[in-house]
Write a structure and sequence with these properties.
The complex is a heterotetramer, with 1 copy of chain A, 1 copy of chain B and 2 copies of chain C. Chain A is an alpha+beta fold. Chain A is built from 26 helices and 28 strands. In chain A, the strands form 5 sheets. A 7-stranded mixed beta sheet of chain A has the order 8-10-7-11-9-12-13, sandwiched between helices. A 7-stranded mixed beta sheet of chain A has the order 23-25-22-26-24-27-28, with helices on both faces. In chain A, 63% of the residues are buried. Chain C is α+β, with helices and mostly antiparallel strands. Chain C has one domain (2-76): Phosphoribosylformylglycinamidine synthase subunit PurS (Mth169, Chain: A). Chain C has 2 helices and 3 strands, in the order βαβαβ. Chain C has helices at 16-27, 51-66; strands at residues 2-9, 33-46, 72-76. A 3-stranded antiparallel beta sheet of chain C has the order 2-1-3. Classes of the chains: A alpha+beta, B alpha/beta, C alpha+beta. Chain A binds chain D through residues 101-102, 105, 211, 214-216, 234-236, 238-239, 241-243, 245-246, 299-300, 313-314, 337, and chain D through 10-14, 16, 20, 23, 68, 70-71. The complex binds adenosine-5'-diphosphate and magnesium ion.
């Protein structure tokens, strides 16, 4: 069979996505021409997706270590110690392109992939969060995308049995041709029972477990090969289809087997499938591996070695098992009605040897596959940056009616309630979820301890577009601030970097700047980046997405019972605004909603102050001095206060007085970092003031909760006096009205 | 009272029920594998939520024909109690242990949300600690929870008092808008004629601790314990 | 031997999915649609000595698993 | 006029439902099942002057809504 395959040539290499230089490099490294199958291996493992060719040099700038870090980048997911013998495993992944081609299955298999990344580490997944970006929702095509993506996430997560507890959905025209589907997963593991993707121990057997292999998702380049005949149609590579039920069985079987001590190393077959596992696992361990492809369980006939190696069929894993424990593997997987087949063993020769019916289809040093080229391509700031930032939003007319303006911003699809989406997600399975979707961060208890986890994902493409470095730093701050607003102490970060083509200098500049921003903020907040994902080439016809780093932060609360939520808890509570005054309408939701403009400068970011504000909020929540805490993000202070009124189970009004001076739209809707609105029991005002004084942060009282209306004054002028029901309606319908 | 929580391939509320029974109610509990037919050492079998066998074909269809469910017939005949929640309810209907069937939600979407249930019959072991008209708060989480039975079967259910819970407003009003899935007559839970097998779509195990937002789910267990344990621990009516 | 099983909701039962598809088609301008129902088709490849026996087995499959008699009816082709 | 549309997964696409149902049938003793695939049947009642025109419209419905071209293929009967 191998004999009939096409010969490797520079042309074929190019069709498979390798450059002429890369092809030369392969020949030099091997000292010979690669076989067709070998070329396929290189093309997959040296792809941007697997090898991070264009990003690796930049990613190295991120802080990746810290006292709690048990595993940083380099494995399937990062691991952070949370005390009491427990560790939390988390990572975020994108599935943007597949979701655009087939929204339901694309999003579903995105969930499946990130779940596997978590449970290969030995952790039980306890939470999913999804960060989604779409074009404007009044376009019917976008609506279908949203419906498909949300129902795909719902189907996979619900059927598998992991709650979806948070995430975000935002809209901008730049995402119309390239929606973003990023999913984060968090799992729990005993700190001393972490598994890694390493093929240790020469002679240990290698097991293939899980679903059978089909032609799903194989690089389209196979089509170009001359082995294709009249049955080409039948062999066409196909879209990946998810099977959450099999994934659930795979989870239970893997965790059960891990308990026995038989597992030496394990990796999920994600991108580039078997090729990736059989080369990365030995590469990490400094070993080699030999496999016999005819033993791989298949669901289609006449698959070539190339196809078997590169198939991206879902719900599969590769296990390295201690020699002599094979029966245990077979027994556990048989119990869960899954295939588990010994397909090879770990070798000491440093080679990946692939046989098909005994015949060698590929034999390559695993190091060669792992040593993809790294590029540092040129970067250049886009020429339009300066002009865009120079725009002053205050040159636009002031709104005639501020109440209308508030209703419009509160009812914009980006700010409006996302209940339409998350009521389709199981939020509670596992009975850990203390704070459900709808507050700044989700909170999950850790059973058997007093602790809880607070988790949030955030990212604001507009801000990064206008100022990649500061915008990216703000994304870290915002995600961490959300965790702080739930009472959590942020412990670690995972990030998903969604950008256009890195081969364009201005995109790579955005990327490099964003990395520097992430790095600065993470250093200032002592937050190691323990894993993440880069998604380049999010562009269609030269239109790139807004540069969108999504930041996921996990934090810990010492007392689960003290978790805070964002909504007001009743009448008569004092309202305080913590943080700096400086805000800007540049890149704001207000500017977009009312004027359809994306321009202007961002507010300044003081990372030291950010840190102090977050510590103050954590301390206030930890000592139960505040009854609610909500960070000021999109929509500014006015929206933060209005959300305090309308997002809880009971509506609570409020009366707020803000300083005069700036134009009211800037005061109300200006956006800036490091700002939090809290409500305080009047009986504890003195204690609260004491804590604020100690914290050395700017803050002020801004009003009280109560009544059926939200009244906002700037100085002595009443600018908003709205019935809270009308605010609630606007917020509740803001997103949903575009769908059904 | 000894509980057994059944585990099918694809079940996911098993651990939650196990936790509530052992950690909150402090009762003995074990897992029962779906291939087991031996139910001798338990008094109450719980069929938990999840997607048994992926719920492919129809929710609960394949599990409804599994060995453990086949053994439930005898178990019930011997006086055993069965509680099926969510997927467990679907399985009981598919197996014919309860009348009716569960169809796709009328909105054609999955729904995970808090619901209120009004209690209709307090003569069953699962509800004897409750009052008629009492409102319980418990979440649902399902895509196929619309209860259906034909007119004859519904009439019989009504006549026998087999309708135990209906979806209602927080005040106990049975209204169209309080019905989250389009169930006929807002039916959320039914029992067999003897009252020893209860199926309901909501999740009592998710409403069993103050931290989870409601403890009303415990009332079902406490009723059950009161009805079988002679220590008078169950709630006074 | 190949058998085709069609499973449909019984006539009296509201087909919500069918109604939704019909509405969507009307929205796309297919106003001539008078009625629409959605069911399942299950195609089974099975070993059986005769077509009649294959049918008989398929019928048994339907009764035991493939159709829920409370909701559905089936035909074998 | 009545048209029957059958929508099935394209060959090569994993039929998770079919695989699960097949396994379940085997478990119930129907070991003769060699292959099983699950699809949708959509029965449309529509106004059309001729059978050919009804088919043509149904074909358009399939292309615009009833079948997902990335995953599914359809036949009209
Ligand atoms: N933006 C990022 N920030 C930090 N680590 C990253 C980032 N992108 C990728 N990584 C790390 O690089 C490693 C390579 O990712 P890998 O697991 O091969 O890819 P995949 O995302 O397909 O699973 C992983 O450990 C991942 O966490
Ligand atoms: Mg991975």
């Amino acid at each position: 069979m191998t004999g009939s395959e096409p010969k490797a040539t520079p042309d074929l290499a190019r069709e498979l996505g390798l450059t002429a230089d890369e092809y030369d490099r392969i020949i030099k490294r091997l000292g010979r021409e690669p076989t067709y199958t070998e070329l396929g291996l290189f093309s997959a493992l040296w792809s941007e997706h697997c090898a991070y060719k264009h990003s690796r040099v930049f990613l190295a700038r991120l802080p990746q270590t810290g006292p709690h870090v048990l595993q940083g980048p380099g494995e399937n997911a990062g691991v952070v110690d949370i005390g009491d013998g427990w560790a939390v495993v988390f990572k975020i992944e994108s599935h943007n392109h597949p979701s655009f081609i087939e929204p339901f299955q694309g999003a579903a298999t995105g969930v499946g992939g990130i779940l596997r990344d978590i449970f290969t580490m030995g952790a039980r997944p306890i939470a999913l969060l999804d960060s989604l970006r779409f074009g404007e929702p009044d376009d019917p095509k976008t609506r279908r995308l949203i419906e498909g993506v949300v129902s795909g996430i719902s189907w996979y997560g619900n059927c598998f049995g992991c709650p979806t507890v948070g995430g975000e959905i935002a809209f901008a025209p730049e995402y119309a041709g390239n929606p973003l589907v990023n999913v984060m997963c968090v799992g729990l593991v005993r700190a001393d029972r972490i598994f890694r993707a390493r093929a240790e121990g020469v002679g240990n057997p290698v097991f293939y477990v899980g679903n059978k292999t089909g032609r799903d998702g194989i690089h389209g380049a196979t089509m170009a090969s001359s082995t294709f005949d009249e049955r080409a149609e039948e062999r066409r590579p196909t879209v990946q289809v998810g099977d959450p039920f099999t994934e659930k069985l795979l989870l239970e079987a893997c965790l059960e087997l891990m308990q026995t001590g038989a597992v030496v190393g394990i990796q999920d077959m994600g991108a580039a499938g078997l090729a990736c596992c059989t080369s990365e696992m030995p590469a990490r361990a400094g070993t080699g591996m030999e496999v016999e492809l005819s033993r791989v369980p298949r669901r289609e006939i006449e698959m070539t070695p190339y196809e078997i190696l590169l198939s991206e069929s879902q719900e599969r894993m590769l296990l390295v098992v201690a020699r002599g424990r094979e029966e245990e593997v077979r027994r556990v997987f048989a119990k869960w009605e899954l295939d588990a087949v010994e397909i090879g063993q770990v070798t000491g020769d440093g080679d990946l040897t692939v046989r098909h019916h005994g015949e060698i289809a590929a034999r390559l040093p695993v190091k060669a596959l792992a040593e993809a080229p790294r590029y540092e391509k040129p970067t250049a700031p886009p020429p339009w940056m300066a002009e865009l930032r120079a725009f002053d939003p205050l040159t636009l007319p002031e709104p005639a009616d501020y109440e209308e303006a508030l209703l419009a911003v509160l009812g914009s699809p980006t700010i409006g309630s996302k209940e339409w989406a998350f009521r389709q997600y199981d939020q509670q399975v596992g009975i850990n979820t203390l704070v459900l979707p709808g507050s700044d961060a989700a909170v999950l208890r850790v059973k058997g301890t007093r602790r809880a986890l607070a988790i949030s994902t955030d990212g604001n493409g507009r801000q990064v577009f206008l100022h990649p470095r500061r915008g990216a730093a703000m994304a870290v701050c915002e995600a961490a601030r959300n965790v702080s607003c739930a009472g959590g102490r942020p412990l670690g970060v995972t990030d998903c970097l969604n950008f256009g083509s890195p081969e364009r200098p201005e995109i790579l500049w955005q990327f490099a700047e964003a990395i520097d921003g992430l790095a600065e903020a993470c250093r200032a907040l002592d937050l190691p980046v323990v894993g993440g994902n880069v998604s380049f080439y999010n562009e269609t016809n030269g239109q790139a997405v807004l540069p969108t780093p999504i930041v996921g932060v996990v934090g810990v609360l010492e007392e689960a019972g003290r978790a805070a939520t964002q909504w007001f808890k009743g009448a008569g509570h004092r309202l305080a605004l913590l943080g700096p005054d400086a805000v800007s309408l540049g890149g704001s939701e207000y500017l977009w909603t009312l004027h359809r403009r994306l321009a202007g400068a961002l507010a300044p970011l003081d990372l030291g102050l950010e840190r102090r504000v977050q510590s103050a909020v954590q301390a206030a929540i930890g000592t139960e001095l505040v009854l609610s805490a909500h960070d000021c993000a999109e929509g500014g202070l006015a929206v933060a206060v209005a959300e305090g009124c309308v997002t809880g189970r009971e509506l609570v009004g409020g009366s707020v007085t803000l300083p005069e001076g700036a134009r009211a739209d800037l005061t109300l809707f200006g956006e800036g970092p490091s700002r939090v609105v809290v409500s305080v029991d009047p009986a504890r005002v003195l204690e609260f003031e004491g804590l604020m004084a100690e914290s050395a942060i700017p803050w002020c009282w801004i009003g009280t909760t109560g009544s059926e209306r939200l009244r906002v004054r700037c100085g002595s002028t009443t600018v908003i006096d709205a019935a809270i029901e009308s605010l609630e309606q606007a917020w509740r319908r803001g997103f949903e009205r575009h769908l059904a | 009272m000894r509980f057994g929580v059944v585990v099918f391939p694809g079940t996911w509320s098993d651990c939650d029920f196990h936790y509530v029974v052992s950690e909150v109610l402090r009762q003995p509990v074990k897992y029962i594998w779906h291939r087991d037919r031996n139910l001798d050492d338990v008094d109450c079998v719980v069929l938990p939520g999840g997607f048994s066998y992926g719920d492919y074909l129809r929710a609960g269809a394949v599990a409804g024909r599994s060995p453990v469910v086949e053994a439930l017939g005898d178990f019930v005949a011997r006086g055993g109690h069965v509680l099926g929640s969510c997927n467990g309810f679907q399985i009981l209907c598919e197996a014919g242990l309860l009348p009716g069937a569960l169809m796709r939600n009328e909105c054609l979407q999955y729904r995970c949300q808090q619901t209120h249930l009004v209690v209709e019959n307090v003569e069953t072991p699962f509800t004897r600690g409750l009052r008629v008209g009492q409102v319980l708060t418990m979440p649902i989480s399902h895509g196929e929870g619309k209860y259906y039975a034909d007119a004859g079967a519904l009439a019989k259910l009504r006549k026998n008092g087999q309708i135990v819970f209906r979806y209602a407003t927080a005040e106990g009003q049975v209204t169209r808008t309080a019905n989250p899935n389009g169930s006929l007559e807002s039916i959320a839970g039914v029992v067999n004629e003897e009252g020893t097998v209860l199926g309901l779509m909501p999740h009592p195990e998710r409403a069993a601790e103050p931290a989870m937002g409601s403890t009303d789910g415990l009332l079902i267990f406490q009723s059950l314990l009161g009805s079988l344990v002679e220590d008078g621990s169950f709630l006074k009516r | 031997m190949r058998v085709r099983v069609l499973v449909r909701l019984k006539p009296g039962i509201l087909d919500v999915q069918g109604a939704a598809v019909k509405r969507a088609l009307m929205g796309l301008g297919f106003t001539e649609v008078a009625d629409l129902r959605v069911g399942k088709v299950i195609e089974v490849e099975l070993d059986a000595p005769t077509a009649a026996q294959a049918r008989a087995r398929a019928d048994e499959m339907c009764r035991r698993l493939l159709a829920n008699p409370v909701l559905e009816e089936y035909t074998i082709e």
